[in-house]
Amino acid sequence: MKARAFAYVRPRTLEEAHAAFAAADGDASFISGGQSLVPALAMRLQAPQVLVDLAGVDALRGVHLDGDVLRIGALTRHADALTDPLIRRHAPLLAAAAPFVAHPAIRNRGTLGGSVALADPASEFPAMMLAMGAEMEISGDAGLRRVPADEYFLDLYQTAIEPGEILVALHVPAAGPHACCAFDEMARRRGDYAMVGGGLMAERDGDALRAVRIALFSVGPTPVRARGAEAALEGRAPDADTIAAAQRALDGDIDPMDDAEVPAAMRRHLARVLLGRLIRKLEADQ
Ligand SMILES: Cc1cc2nc3c(=O)[nH]c(=O)nc-3n(C[C@H](O)[C@H](O)[C@H](O)COP(=O)(O)OP(=O)(O)OC[C@H]3O[C@@H](n4cnc5c(N)ncnc54)[C@H](O)[C@@H]3O)c2cc1C
């Protein structure tokens, strides 16, 4: 199949981008890297009259440290998460997740903003926003607003972004000197969407872990915070008993569904195994 014919606009500012979207009377799509949208157009799962290309909007570019928060422009490419020195130093969980996202050709075009705006429940970066406690900066009619990751993911492919709004940047708390993190996923083949994956952020306090945040993906319609498992780890040294307690607690954190590829019971089992691996990775990297 081929995409339906569409008009194409390339605005230079947020104001122009909003105006172009409004002029299409709602029958428009923003496009960033096109790595999810273009296949959807080609299959006619989406057929907007107008594509509003965000690539020329400077406000969506750049990675800057602002105090203890790293501002990552929405147009930052997946590949930059692997190489950008500020991301590697201050958001190491993103750098750890990046090699697992698709393949190099897609990572060279796909953007962090596009991934987090789309919010595929099997995607790595949206869940890492939850694990890092990031805030999403969104531009809309009322100007700019920020939405914490805990309030951003609403349902399957549904986020706090309203139609016509633009994800401008991701604001990530910079990892402090005692921060530690781990990422892992289980996929049938490297580069495939994962059957289960997750990221863990924490602070080391002697042998104990504090400020633990764990987010899993491919376990439900949105990325999921594993709050029970976090509580089981909080303030404790991650020894074998604590890991087992966190794995038991994880059962109450997720409610995976059966699908044609992976039965729910298997996903639950894989999530427990994954959590154990994440915690042991933290210790191995000490
Ligand atoms: C073969 C293949 C394998 C893949 N494997 C993986 C994988 O393993 N893991 C993974 O996470 N992803 C995977 N992807 C998806 C890829 O990571 C996409 O790049 C990403 O999901 C979307 O980013 P994009 O910049 O390409 O967005 P686009 O495709 O341009 O846009 C995606 C959606 O987000 C909207 N949008 C884009 N930018 C903004 C913005 N700034 N504000 C508001 N809305 C916006 C668009 O309107 C569209 O609805 C794969 C893609 C392909 C083709």
TrEMBL record:
Membrane-crossing ranges are none
The identity of this protein, by name, is Xanthine dehydrogenase family protein subunit M
Stretches assigned to the FAD-binding PCMH-type domain: 1-177
Tagged with keyword Ligase? no
Which species is this record about? Answer: Xanthobacter tagetidis
Write the record's keywords in alphabetical order, separated by commas: FAD, Flavoprotein, Oxidoreductase
The record, for InterPro entries, names: CO_DH_flav_C, CO_DH_flav_C_dom_sf, Diverse_Substr_Oxidored, FAD-bd_PCMH, FAD-bd_PCMH-like_sf, FAD-bd_PCMH_sub1, FAD-bd_PCMH_sub2, Mopterin_DH_FAD-bd
Q: Which Pfam families match?
A: CO_deh_flav_C, FAD_binding_5
Q: Please name the GO terms that the record assigns under molecular function.
A: FAD binding; oxidoreductase activity
Q: What is the lineage of its organism?
A: Bacteria, Pseudomonadati, Pseudomonadota, Alphaproteobacteria, Hyphomicrobiales
| Key word Nucleus present | no
